[in-house]
Request: fold
Amino acid sequence: MLVVASRRPDAYTDADAGIVAALAGQAMVAYDKAGLFERVRQLATQDDLTGVANRRHLLEQAEKLFADAIRACRDLSAIMLDIDHFKQVNDTFGHQVGDEVIAAVADRLRSVLHPGDLVGRYGGEEFLIVIPANGATVAAIAERLRTAVNATPVSTATGLLEITISAGISPRHNSDGTLTALIGRADQALYLAKKQGRNRVATI
Ligand code: GH3
Ligand code: MG
Ligand code: MG
Reply:
């Protein structure tokens, strides 16, 4: 609602009202444009299913965090997470229930992470987290993420499902010249966690 007021009686003519209406119309166009712009930005950066960063946005943001960490000599780690035996969920209950599980896992990851942490969907049922920490701190965060997923069963259309994840951590080393190298080590660590029996965290 737009109100134009004056203390003077009969202050405005019909022509004035027309001008105000035209200006308000212009403002509405700008308002709608801003809304559309925000929607396009969302579509370009967010993963539809989970609301976390999509792969492209995730890697773009991760490159920035990686460059900043090198410049300022700050701690940085990558955590690669993967849902355990997820194919069984799809095969037993169907892909829609699988999708519900992926979305619920993303919610639980987000509930543990802080605003400065980066989380995105790296692949189908794989999430990458890039976090300004290393050593015992990042190990504790990964453990909290694992526990957050496993603590209570996930509610789906087919009922409650026990879901676990495995996580691989790679704290940034000075020898990690590129983000790709850092992510590669997180992936190796994840592979180790799977090999050691799943539902656990491993560090390389
Ligand atoms: P592991 O414990 O070794 O990770 O076993 P897994 O069964 O989770 O591993 P695998 O990589 O074999 O299975 C991943 C499955 O995820 C295969 C693929 O069909 C499924 N998938 C990938 N993206 C999606 C998705 O968006 N929705 C659903 N429902 N399934 C997906
Ligand atoms: Mg898996
Ligand atoms: Mg996988």
Remarks:
- Residues 10-45 form one domain.
